[in-house]
Amino acid sequence: MSVLSDVPVADAVDAVETDLLLDGLRRRWGYDLRGYDRRHARKQLATLLRARRFPSLSALQGRVLRDPREAEAVVAALARPRPRLFRDPAFWLGFRRRAVPLLRTYPSPRLWVPACGTGEDAYTLAVVLEEEGLRRAEIYATDLLGATLEEARHRRLPPAALRIAQDRHARAGGVRPLTEHFRGQVLGSPVLQRIVLGTHSLATDGPINEFQFVLCRGLLPRFGPELRLRVLGLVRDSLCPLGLVALDPGIGDLQMPGLAPHTPQEGLWRRVQ
User: Fold this and answer.
1) How far apart are CA 134 and CA 150, in angstroms?
2) CATH 3.40.50.150 in the chain, residues?
3) Taking the CB of residue 33, how many other CB atoms lie within 10 A of it?
4) Partner of 100 at 20 to 30 A CA spacing, among 33, 125, 134, 187?
5) 3-state secondary structure (DSSP) of residue 96
6) Whole-number Å distance between alpha carbons of 12 and 6
7) At residue 253, does pLDDT exceed 70?
8) Is 208 within 8 Å of 142 (Cβ atoms)?
9) Are the C-beta atoms of residues 267 and 91 closer than 8 Å to each other?
10) Phi and psi for 223 in degrees, rounded to 5?
């Protein structure tokens, strides 16, 4: 009896096509997304198929293998976080109260935002550090796609999005109006100057520096078990002793060697070995 005998034919075909697409993406272009959670991958790919009017994943794969722009579209669909400045204001309020005092003890703290997408979390972090007077801090924001980083480098926030972000910023403990950090639709240079952008693959690359803080929220739910453990190990190895990492709430049921709760209700964990 086939192991797929109890699985609907369409689902079984989609599962095979998803695996083939991800393997082709790695072999042709070097983007390794095979460790992503399959439910997340299939949901995002289904949305991409509708938006791009492809009849099937096989049809998309044919284009992906021949066109680097289609390959980048697939990577962006699976790997890019939802762009929102000051998303989850409660977390950022907790960051000011719990993480900032630790960062003040370092002369030049380094912070890392892996899989930064178009940079909203890195920009949020930079604004908070500016308001808290940590002007010698340096933020490394990395992503798998160079094209995404280029978009982040020239990111503009439309007026409507800025108005919404202003409310979240105030609830996150903002000490002055968010608009004071902008020049028109672009963040002002003091904020941008503390951000270093670079490419990095969480699936294949190693640590890039030693950090006092890593912002890793919104990442692990997209990954399968093996990639989750790899990323947690990479984060641990990237942290200095007693350095902090921000994880999604409820992620503590995973085994995390070398990491211990700092303030788990706010998603903060500390390197202990």
Assistant:
1) 26
2) 89-271
3) 23
4) 187
5) helix
6) 10
7) no
8) yes
9) yes
10) -100, 155
pLDDT tens-place string over residues 73-104: 999 899 888 778 999 999 999 999 999 999 99
Q: Are strands 186-187 and 182-183 parallel, antiparallel or unpaired?
A: antiparallel
What's domain 89-271's superfamily in CATH? Vaccinia Virus protein VP39 (3.40.50.150)
Q: What angle do CA 93, 256, 209 make, to 5 degrees?
A: 70
Residue 245's contacts (CB-CB under 8 Å, 6 or more residues apart) are 213, 214, 215, 216, 235, 236, 239, 259, 268, 269, 270, 271
Q: How far apart are the C-alpha atoms of 129 and 33, rounded to whole Å? A: 32
Q: Give the per-residue pLDDT at 254.
A: 60
Residue 239 has pLDDT above 90, yes or no: yes
* Confidence at 5, pLDDT banded by 50, 70, 90: very low
Query: Count of CB atoms within 10 A of residue 61's CB?
Result: 22
Q: What is the mean pLDDT of residues 198-227?
A: 94
**Pairing assessment for the beta strands 195-199 and 239-246 based on DSSP bridges:** unpaired
Q: What is the rounded end-to-end Cα distance, in angstroms, of the chain?
A: 49
CA distance 83 to 77: 12
* pTM of the full structure: 0.89
Give the separation between CA 10 and CA 97, rounded to whole angstroms: 50
Question: Which class for 208: exposed (0-12), middle (13-18), buried (19 or more C-beta within 10 A)?
Answer: middle
Two structure tokens written together for 159: 């007026």
Rounded CA separation 61/208 (Å): 32
Backbone angles phi, psi at 186, to 5 degrees: -120, 140
**Residues 154, 254: Cα–Cα separation, whole Å:** 37
